[in-house]
Amino acid sequence: MNYLAHIFLARHSHDAMLGALLGDFVKMNGAADYPNHIAQEIILHRKIDTYTDQHPLTQQAKELFSPLRRRYAGIALDIFYDHVLAKHWQHYADVDLDQFTKDFYRALPTRQSFFTEHLAYAVPRMVQQDWLGSYVDFDGVALAIERVSTRLSRNGHLLREAVLDLEQNYVELSEGFFEFFPQLQSFVLAQREMLILD
Question: Which of 5, 64, 98, 180 has CB atoms 3.0–4.6 Å from 169's, for a disulfide?
Fold first, then answer.
């Protein structure tokens, strides 16, 4: 799961949504530096990533990638799954995608004190380029993969070429998401209840 899915799964409050976003910018042991309701979402972000990476449906999806690029399939799938979520948003959300993203973008500046250095750098670009809304088009997937590939120390071209695998297996990968995402939603609900009890 990439930014959009994490934020969507934490949509019950703006602080929770920020915590879900911070999960990509804060290490697990760094969660203790944040208020509990934000820290819980940072921790849950990591649990979501682990659950997604290890899920049999995700493992099956990775097998559809070329062996040369399979090492980067997880990254490509995370971004692609945000695309499928955005494209079929009305099946999962009761608010318009554009309204959802704009509301989140408006809330971010009021929480700047919680930003890491890297998040402070990323947020203006996220808002200006509408990273969350751009997932609705497949071109947005390619662009997001391009951005991530520049942060790899080597073999960024293999991640960029994984777009070919996404295109060639678009229908099957989309169907995998439709089967997987409700299971992820149930997992998140159960995990959040456990965190609250703790």
Answer: 64
Render pLDDT for 90-120 as a digit per residue (tens, 0 to 9): 999 999 999 999 999 999 999 989 998 899 9
The Cα-based distances of 22 to 3, 70, 150, 153 in angstroms read: 10, 27, 20, 22
pLDDT tens digit string along 121-167?
999 999 999 999 999 999 999 999 998 888 876 778 888 999 999 99
| Whole-angstrom distance, CA of residue 77 vs CA of residue 58 | 8
Q: Tokens for 15, please give them.
A: 């602080």
pLDDT classification of 24: cutoffs 50, 70, 90: confident
**What's the chain look like in SS3?**
CCHHHHHHHCCCCHHHHHHHHHCCCCCHHHHHHCCHHHHHHHHHHHHHHHHHHHCHHHHHHHCCCCCCCHHHHHHHHHHHHHHHHHHCHHHCCCCCHHHHHHHHHHHHHHHHHHCCHHHHHHHHHHHHCCHHHHCCCHHHHHHHHHHHHCCCCCCHHHHHHHHHHHHHCHHHHHHHHHHHHHHHHHHHHHHHHHHHHC
Please, what is the average pLDDT of the chain?
91
